[in-house]
Amino acid sequence: MRTDPDILERVRAWMEAQRMLEDTDTLLCALSGGADSVCLLHLLRRLSGELGFRLEAAHYHHGIRGAEADRDRDFSAALCRDLSVPLHQGRGDV
């Protein structure tokens, strides 16, 4: 995936300003399977090597969107598998 260097620098600067890595060596990225969270996962994966943190993802199936939610779950699982990012999954009936 080609990444705009400016967006990577902006994310890195924001993470440093928020002190996101001060008390941890692992970041958990909430992954819905939508464009925003997929982009964030890719950016964090790129930064994980440079900044020295372990990246993991979490996907929660709320049980309210039927087959569409099943596709998001499956997509998230495949994406994490392809990126070698550990995925934590949960499911509930809300």
Care to describe what's here?
By secondary structure, the chain is of the alpha/beta class. Helix content is 51%, strand content 19%.
How are the elements arranged and paired?
Elements (H helix, E strand, L loop, with lengths): L4 H13 L8 E5 L4 H17 L2 E8 L4 H18 L3 E5 L3
Parallel strand pairs: 1-2, 2-3
Helix pairs in contact: 1-2
Which labels suit this protein?
single chain, 94 residues, alpha/beta, three-stranded parallel β-sheet, 3 strands
Radius of gyration: 14 Å
In order across it, which strands form the biggest sheet? 1-2-3
| Series of H and E elements | HEHEHE
Which regions are unreliable across 5 or more consecutive residues at pLDDT < 50? none
- What profile does the largest beta sheet have? 3 strands, parallel
Summarize the structure.
With 94 residues, the protein is of the alpha/beta class. The protein has helices spanning 5-17, 35-51, 66-83, and strands spanning 26-30, 54-61, 87-91. Strands 1-2-3 form a three-stranded parallel beta sheet.
